[in-house]
Structures are given as structure tokens and as C-alpha cells.
Amino acid sequence: xxxxxxxxxxxxxxxxxxxxxxxxxxxxxxxxxxxxxxxxxxxxxxxxxxxxxxxxxxxxxxxxxxxxxxxxxxxxxxxxxxxxxxxxxxxxxxxxxxxxxxxxxxxxxxxxxxxxxxxxxxxxxxxxxxxxxxxxxxxxxxxxxxxxxxxxxxxxxxxxxxxxxxxxxxxxxxxxxxxxxxxx
Length: 184
Description:
By secondary structure, the protein is of the alpha+beta class. The protein has five helices and four strands. It starts with 12 loop residues before the first helix and ends in a 6-residue tail after the last strand. The model has no long low-confidence stretch (mean pLDDT 86).
């Protein structure tokens, strides 16, 4: 036979607590404490977010202030001759010296002496002055320069015999055009 419980007490909180098992009570306490911890952590994260947004706004205001100050700066205009001098210096710095000197070194012989090299970056052109003992040595030097892959063309401009020198060497001028983009 089953036990029949008859309880005429009104339904209240005290009655529910009395009828609650220990496991249910502990589980309820655990859930409520976890909810409290989550709520506390949420408020902390919300506060951090608000602090970060405030920092972003202050940095944006500071950037805007710096940009406004930057616009107020006076721009100094250089005279044309100084601008040209700066551009010429930049052109000299942009000369492909390594490739140019490598090509000249590969063309070096003991029968011709290179005296002067003047590069022109705007035209990708090098003017050179050299001396050789004979006209055959001069032509051979020009031909060796023409075979260098760095130069696209080499032209002998003029030559003359130096009568004042006892060896009477031939001094000659040449132009060597180099390729703007060198493949390595």
C-alpha cells in the first residue's frame, strides 16, 4: 500500500523551503552565486569598455589638435637654384654606381687608362675620358665596353694625340648609354 500524504498547509515560501531537498537547495545557491559573479564581471567589462572608448576619443581629439597645428605651420619655399642643386645631388645618389663601376672594371685592360667618368642620371648616360698607347688599343677598349651588358650603346666621340707627352698617347672621349632597368 502507498503512503498518502495529506497536507492542508497553504502554499508559501516557507513550505517550499521545507519541502526542498538539500541537493536542490545547494544547486539553487550555486546558480544564484554564479549569476552574481557573472553580473559583477559584466559590470567590470562594461567599465573597461567605457574607459577604452574615452581613451580613443581623447586620442582622436589630440590627433585632430595636432593636425590643426600642422596646417598652421609655415611652408618655406626654396629658391630655384637650391631646388636644382638638391635635385642634382639626388640624381647623383641615384646613379647605379655599383653596376657602372663593375662594367668599367670588367672592361679594364693594361693598354688603356680611364681618366674621368661623368654620369648623367637624367639621360642614363656616362661620359668618359681615357688614354691609350695606340689607336688599336683605343678601338679595342671601346669594343670591350660595347660587350658589357650594363651598357646599351657605347660611342667614341673624339680623340687626339697628346703631343706634349713623350709617349704621345691618344686621349679619347666616349659616351656610354646604360639601361635604366638592369636585369641581374
